Amino acid sequence: MANPAQNMPATADRRFALAGREWQADGVRIAVLPPAERISLRAPAESVAALSSALGLDLPARPKTSASSGGRTALWLGPDEWLVIDQTGDPLVDCASVSELHSAVGISHRNVAFTVSGAGAAATINAGCPQDLSLAAFPVGGCSRTILGKAEIVLLRTAPDAFRVECWRSFSDYVHDLLLEAANDAQA
Amino acid sequence: MSGPMTQQPFRIPGAGRLTPARSLRFTFDGAHYSGVSGDTLASALLANGVHLTGRSFKYHRPRGILAAGAEEPNALVSVERDSARRTPNVRATVQELYDGLSANSQNRWPSLAFDVGAMNDLAGAMFSAGFYYKTFMWPKAAWAKLYEPRIRAAAGLGVAPDQPDPDHYASRFAHCEVLVIGGGAAGIAAALAAAEGGVRVILCDERAEFGGALHYEQGARIEGQAGWDWAQTAIAKLAAMDNVRLLPRTTAFGYYAQNILGLVERVTDHMDAPDRHLPRERLWQVRAKRVVLATGAIERHMVFADNDRPGVMLASAARTYLNHYGVAVGKQVGIYTVNDSAYYTAIDLKKAGVEIAAIIDLRDAPSGPAVEEARALGIEINPGRAVVGTGGRLRVSSMIVEPKNGGSRRTITVDALLTSSGWTPSVHLFSQSRGKVAFDEGRQIFVPGVYAQDCVSVGACNGAEGLEETVAQGFEAGERAATAAGGSTSRAQAMKVDAAEAWAGGMLGSGPGAGAGKTVKAFIDFQNDVTAKDIRQAVHEGMHSIEHVKRFTTNGMATDQGKTSNMHGLAIAAETLGKPIPQVGLTTFRPPYTPVTFGSIVGHSRGKLFDPTRKTPMHGWAEAHGAVFEDVGQWKRAWYFPMAGEDMHAAVNRECVTVRQAAGLFDASTLGKIEVVGPDAAKFMELLYTNPWEKLEPGRCRYGIMLREDGFIYDDGVVGRLAHDRFHVTTTTGGAARVMNHMEDYLQTEFPHLKVWLTSVSEQWAVVAVQGPKSRDIIEPLVEGIDLSDEAMPHMSVREGKICGVPTRLFRMSFTGDRGFEVNVPADYGQAVWEALWAEGQKHGACAYGTEAMHVLRAEKGYIIVGQDTDGTVTPADAGLEWAIGKKKTDFVGIRGMARPDLVGAGRKQLVGLATRDPKIVLEEGAQIVADPNQPVPMKMIGHVTSSYWSENCGRSIAMGLVVDGRSRMGETLFVPMPDGVIEVEVTGAVFYDPKGDRLNG
């Protein structure tokens, strides 16, 4: 009998866009974040309670807000749309048990995430993002699907001086390079 | 004795605010000079006695520095840091001096002092208003080839740089509650009041230092301090506040919708050795809750004959050069005015030891403190008189004075002549904001009238009468803006103005010295060489609207936008028309307020940041394996994979043959992918595509066509039904974003009742197309949990399982006509799975193939590419795709459009195959098709070639084309006329290879 291991194909390894890249300047640090599980969740208001309980957090109902629990964050992107990001578990699995009307689509590999932190973080992002990033207008936990230069991003404020920037995988080179150039000018 | 002062004969010891010890060297037209830190190029030139800085645009007349700020029309120079950093058309009055600055004059040849083009001045009668329109009308072709290039060469500004700009430019979006534009007394007062209310304040000013008119005013005292000192104290206070951003050297150039303003900050242009990490300029796009416009006023010159000689300047400019820069503009200075403010210039100059030849005042009985003080200083005042001419060539040498109602002339020797006809409020930004100006009859000025946006004008730009009103308006506006934006009531106390200067008087239009004679050149627009008589002539020739007068004479159309000339032009036009000024109207100001560099607009968007370059997860493998890439939208796609010694043709032929003989791997990751989920998913698909979907079983696929409402093909792609309520839709690469938008648009506006949601998964899935007879053999060892037999997984089916241990959506489908699969895996696994498939493929003789071979292979099968074989005017019937329309369907987007009479009648262009009589000839895509090549030109074109390739598999060229009634022309010979001969083609079916389709299961 042949060794079954020889018949089984080797498992494909995961190759991340921009894996491990990190950059630091006066007042700004930019780093590529490790992979995460992500879903695009769409649901009418009637299903929110059931989905919230399955996901273990209260899906936010107010525009530009997010809710976090454990390593999981749900970002309000539209009246019936959330981006759920999880560093450990797969929210797709949790939604599978929900019978109430909804659409959950796995997009873990679609996005690449950066962290932009430091005193110059907001100025860095404001090089290409037209949003008001003052703490009053965009508090910690605030989020928005917006633009950075010519790329669409999802922006989440994780701390007074730290943001998570999510973009589609093929835009990650562009977003990375633009953030770096912007960070060079962020001290002004 | 040596030192900077001796080299600068017009620098007055003890005058001005600059520190003489900080000496800087610079060159102008190759001559070496010195200036001091804080100088502008203009002030440094004047300190060296240099007035002549350029030649005028049309007549090439010698011109000197007129102003001390952004309104300067004459002193445009080219500043060169190095061969790549050459900036033309820099206003010497704005350019700050740095050590080693090198500037050159423009628009002169062979030299500034002797310019051949000046003969235009002698022939001035020829170059009258509308000259170009009248003269260069015929022959028409000569305009583009002969006249325009010569005119442009002769009448020019500076020379554009010819090397890539080595500097970089930054951009920043900013938000604030109060944006104050202009850092003079009004702007500073507004910023202070607003900032004390705790709201976010941005204060910008175009100059290096804040202070505005306080740069030159000596009589102002605010809060017990001299005006300038108060301004600097206030700025220091603002600088220390967290909620305030000060932007000096920053021009607000554009006022756009909803209080968005464009500001350009000049970061390094004043530095002698800029840190290369610094951007040269930074573009600020500011959205403000309220804008406070404190943009001041611009002094007008007097209009009289030969009022443009170097040395003729604005009175306030001369005062600025004296009081701020410590420079006297001459040794024997004449003044010509109709208002009081020019008297202060005479007073300050006189006190600094400069001789005042005389003050000529057109008013009969000027009076007031300024007049009295001038008189007390012993300055000769000549009321009721006019300057009617000047002497001199490269520098004014005299003024010719005459009683204003005529009489004997007197010539007075001067080396500078300062004029003032009053002040024009700077309503440019207000006008850009779409506000409507109102005419103040008594004071003959346009001031802000009806506001269109949330902004307020304060100070001189609002027609404020004096410093006290200016400061009060600014303070009140700042306080109100802060309160309106939710700030606390300002803790600031209103500022107390202790002393101010009176600025009464002024006139518009030409004085007695602007004569009606043909040869008199009394300039109103210096930069475009427009004279008073040009305006009169335009009116006489029928231009009655100020918009027509402006375009006919080009008055106000130069880069200075007529900052000193518009009101004069308007007044002369009104006078000639015999109408009041408001009836003639003011032209609308447009951005930019002053010229803006391309660099600042472009910002970061150059080089690799010009546009995102999108790469697939397998890009690295393709690159390592020698792929040549082509740009498809923003994507880089592998075009072909040449082996050693192969050209494109050879590589593509090999790839095409290998796919059909063995197999090929193709990176199809760029395809658009949309997951359609919900109980009404099939209903939604029925409405968006022509095909039927309700009965498609889960696990099966269908080729779908999407139309626009007009019935024309919009996109196509294979759709897999993963579950009853879940479809995996693919779109063309180029259509990914717009198909998603199209679907979402219809879902939200036409079909909101459907319970279905759309999610773009284009980038979630990497796609490896494995095509060819060996394709199943290649994937089989790597796939788990999916039966790949033809019975279990027939052509056009989709299964979910695992490949290489990772999840896959495995499609059995073909864009080659051979057996094929498309392996979808989560993107990060794309390259590893590709490598595993490649290793298996090697065992079966497979190749990697690119987009070119993909195109050839699909054309061999007559498969269309939307956007290549269709052009937005092709229906499914035209493309031979009626079979893809659900015959029993009663509704889908485009169903009614498709039934329009002209889309179903005869004479439609239909997609057919085209076989050249000579199989070796490959037609050119886009070539036109005619029925009779011998008909006279222009021939009747009955179609064109849409796709054309050499097909190694067919051993001949193949092509498709859209031909009128093409399908009823089978076997007919048509003709493709080309420059080197006519090519004969036979109309055929579009399937050139395996017409029965056996190979799909081969």
Task: Spell out the blueprint of helices and strands.
The complex is a heterodimer of chains A (188) and B (1002).
Chain A: H1 4-7, E1 22-25, E2 28-32, E3 37-42, H2 48-55, E4 66-69, E5 72-78, E6 81-86, H3 91-96, E7 103-106, E8 111-117, H4 121-125, E9 143-148, E10 151-159, E11 162-168, H5 172-184
Antiparallel strand pairs in A: 1-2, 2-8, 3-6, 3-7, 4-5, 5-6, 8-11, 9-10, 10-11
Chain B: H1 4-7, E1 23-28, E2 31-36, H2 41-47, E3 52-55, E4 62-64, E5 76-80, E6 86-91, E7 101-105, H3 119-122, H4 131-135, H5 140-154, E8 169-181, H6 185-196, E9 201-204, E10 221-222, E11 225-226, H7 227-239, E12 244-247, E13 250-256, E14 260-266, E15 281-293, E16 297-299, E17 312-314, H8 315-323, E18 332-337, H9 341-351, E19 355-361, H10 369-376, E20 381-383, E21 385-392, E22 396-403, E23 410-413, E24 416-420, E25 423-425, H11 428-432, E26 436-440, E27 445-450, E28 455-457, H12 467-484, E29 497-499, E30 523-525, E31 530-531, H13 532-540, H14 546-553, H15 566-577, H16 581-584, H17 598-602, H18 619-624, E32 628-632, E33 635-640, H19 648-661, E34 664-667, E35 672-677, H20 681-688, E36 701-707, E37 713-723, E38 726-731, H21 736-749, E39 757-760, E40 765-771, H22 775-779, E41 783-784, E42 797-803, E43 806-812, E44 820-826, H23 830-843, E45 847-848, H24 851-860, H25 895-898, H26 901-904, E46 909-916, E47 928-930, E48 941-951, E49 956-964, E50 973-978, E51 981-988
